Amino acid sequence: MATEAKPEDDKPITVSLQDNSFEPYEIEAPSLELKTTKNELRAMYRDMAAVRRMEMAADKLYKERKIRGFCHLSTGQEAVAVGMEKAITPDDQIITAYRCHGFAYMRGASVKSIIAELLGRREGIAYGKGGSMHMFTKSFFGGNGIVGAQVPVGAGIGFAMKYLGRPNTTFALYGDGAANQGQVFEAFNMAKLWGIPIVFGCENNKYGMGTAANKSSALTEYHKRGQYIPGLKVNGMDVLAVKQACAWAKEYTVSGKGPLVMEFVTYRYGGHSMSDPGTTYRTREEVSYMRSNQDAIQGLRNKLMDWNILTEEEVKDIEKEVKEAVDAEVAAAEAAPTPDNTNRILFEDIYTRGSEPDWMRGRTVEETFYYKE
Fold it and tell me: Which NCBIfam families does this one have (predicted)?
């Protein structure tokens, strides 16, 4: 039986964060006292459980060869997407790299639309044409496959917010493996020069593909990489710390103080992608330790019971609800039709629907496609 909502569950409560939640650089750290509600805490747990269940379903479908091509999962990293979304509004902007399923879900995409996209189905979030690395929804600019290239695009989105006079920030996310890309530092420079309201967020999951951070980066404290931009390291395995940090970062950037660099210290349980077993460059014991001692979902589960927010039975009810809901949407995605093998489907989404030109040239003159026939 689902936990019944009570009026007092929306009353503000204050909880204390762990002492190691933040490490600031050239700035004061956020408070370790977080204001939240019982309902928000429940929602955080439900959302992280849903993202993980969805990613586990994608893992299974890939191994069954129903999902093909690239597939990058965020199992273990759920706290970043969930905590960030709880701290901002739908009108704030997010752009990230290819480990994007959880962000798409938190930005409003359904499990069905995400799994259908992975399966190449017509009802996918990008109509089955984008796959794992290219998912978009309102105020979410993907899902980008070129390493680090989304960072300057994020700076452009942030500039647009400033130019239009909107009270919104932009989170431009990238991994530790992209942190040494030149365009990242070019974006830092431009954002500082122009006072762009943007948070450059490095999701440091310790391994860029199969290379440990200390073997690729001379400075592994990624929150200090901005040099002339203040930074903050965040415990990315604690959804409450992520929420507090992101709310603080939004307030800082939209107040006219310019950009921030943040580092979310997190961990992926699987490999870089589904084609990577993830065990040749790290030990099984390391992964097992992180699962047992640092897991974001289990950590919040323990807090909810320690703080008498939920009983163990209520937690199990939430987990059962999530399992049933996600599994139903996954089944619906599997049953969704594949796109028809026609030129109309092929050319349909080059332009936003309704804005197409009269015609589009194919490989040859004979393959020219006319939209308004």
Answer: PDH_E1_alph_y (TIGR03182)
Q: What's the token pair of residue 232?
A: 């903050």
Give the domain extent around 81: 7-339
How far is Cα 266 from Cα 263, in angstroms, rounded to an integer? 9
Structural tokens at position 220: 């592994």
- Residue 175 domain flag: yes
Tokens of 161: 């917010």
Do both 242 and 355 map to the same domain?
Answer: no
- Domains of the chain: total: 2
Same domain, yes or no: 278 and 357: no
List per-residue pLDDT tens for the chain, 373 residues long: 455 557 678 899 999 999 999 999 999 999 999 999 999 999 999 999 999 999 999 999 999 999 999 999 999 999 999 999 999 999 999 999 999 999 999 999 999 999 999 999 999 999 999 999 999 999 999 999 999 999 999 999 999 999 999 999 999 999 999 999 999 999 999 999 999 999 999 999 999 999 999 999 999 999 999 999 999 999 999 999 999 999 999 999 999 999 999 999 999 999 999 999 998 999 999 999 999 999 999 999 999 999 999 999 999 999 999 999 999 999 999 999 999 999 999 999 888 888 999 999 989 999 999 998 7
**Is residue 335 one of the residues assigned to a domain?**
yes
